[in-house]
Design brief:
The chain is an all-beta fold and about 290 residues long. It is built from no helices and 24 strands. Strands 1-8-3-6 form a four-stranded antiparallel sheet, with no helix packed on it. It has a four-stranded antiparallel sheet with strand order 2-7-4-5, with no helix packed on it. The chain has a four-stranded antiparallel sheet with strand order 17-24-19-22, with no helix packed on it.
């Protein structure tokens, strides 16, 4: 079959001894011209019927060379598909439907995607961008695996919700031995809901807890026992004129004015002032 390169801006006379002219291969469009019919577009796959036309001119009006292969015959030839379909210029949104028990692997998503699938189906999604929405219906499951060693979650909106319907399951696996999660920029108000059968334990950290000064106007002062108290600090005021006894009248340890004693116990203790106008300052350390 004849073949040649038609240079950019050039033309070539072609003898047509048969009834039909077929373009077998072409790397670009060109024109086929004749005084009998004028000019028509020459392109791959076209067949032209040329009754009583002995020659035509191939003209390349473009700025690129065109490789052309053609055939001239007296029989009409019909082409058939070769199993390859090329589709371009698709719209922005494409629906994909698949039946139960089928699976689909999707990678390299654009910025925003929403994936919905029915019961019995599964989807594997990788290389997701920043924003994604996944809807799981009743009877479906979502598996997320192969987490990195650490990840950061920041700039959370005021309300966060994860809803799992009846019959659904959420499995997160293949986590490394150590996970670091940093959460910051939380809203001012956070809500914690405790359902029936749940419990919430809140522990106060160790700290310094000042107490009111002792008043001996009504007699001895008793400091009650307290669980969790590591130390009771007792300091006699500098302005005192007599001793303050830790333990009772003349019993235990006497404190002269300005002296301090640390009682390392949470047990009850009695304080006695020789001069009821005197006082002492109190504080405790809680574990």
């Amino acid at each position: 079959m004849p073949a040649f390169t038609l240079k950019a801006g050039s033309e070539r006379l072609v003898q047509t001894s048969g009834l039909y002219l077929s373009i077998i291969n072409s790397t670009g469009n060109f024109s086929i011209e004749s005084p009998q019919f004028g000019a028509v577009v020459g392109e791959l796959g076209r067949q032209y019927e040329l009754p009583s036309i002995n020659q035509v001119t191939f003209v390349n009006h473009s700025s690129d060379d065109v490789n052309i292969e053609f055939e001239i015959a007296n029989i009409k030839v019909h082409t058939s598909g070769k199993g390859v379909v090329s589709i371009s210029n698709l719209p922005a949104v494409q629906p994909v439907e698949f039946s139960a028990d089928m699976s689909v692997d999707v990678g390299n998503f654009p910025a925003t995607q929403q994936v919905s699938f029915a019961a019995g189906q599964s989807v594997n999604v990788s290389n997701l961008p920043a924003t994604q929405a996944v809807t799981i219906e009743t009877g479906q499951s979502l598996n997320v695996g192969n987490f990195p060693t650490s990840f950061n979650v920041s700039n959370l909106p005021a309300t966060q919700a994860v809803t799992i319907e009846a019959g659904q399951a959420l499995n997160i696996g293949n986590l490394p031995a150590v996970q670091t999660v940093s959460v910051n920029n939380l809203p001012v108000t956070q809500a914690v809901t405790i359902e029936t059968g749940q419990s919430l334990a809140i522990e106060k950290p160790q700290g310094y807890n000042p107490l009111a000064p002792a008043n001996f106007g009504a007699g001895d002062v008793v400091i009650a026992a307290k669980s969790g108290r590591d130390t009771l600090v007792i300091m006699a005021a500098d302005e005192n004129t007599a001793k303050i006894w830790i333990g009772g009248n003349g019993v235990g340890i006497p404190l002269i004015p300005g002296q301090t004693f640390n009682l390392g116990s949470g047990a009850a203790v009695t304080l006695h002032a020789e001069n009821t106008a005197d006082t002492c300052y109190l504080a405790e350390v809680i574990n």
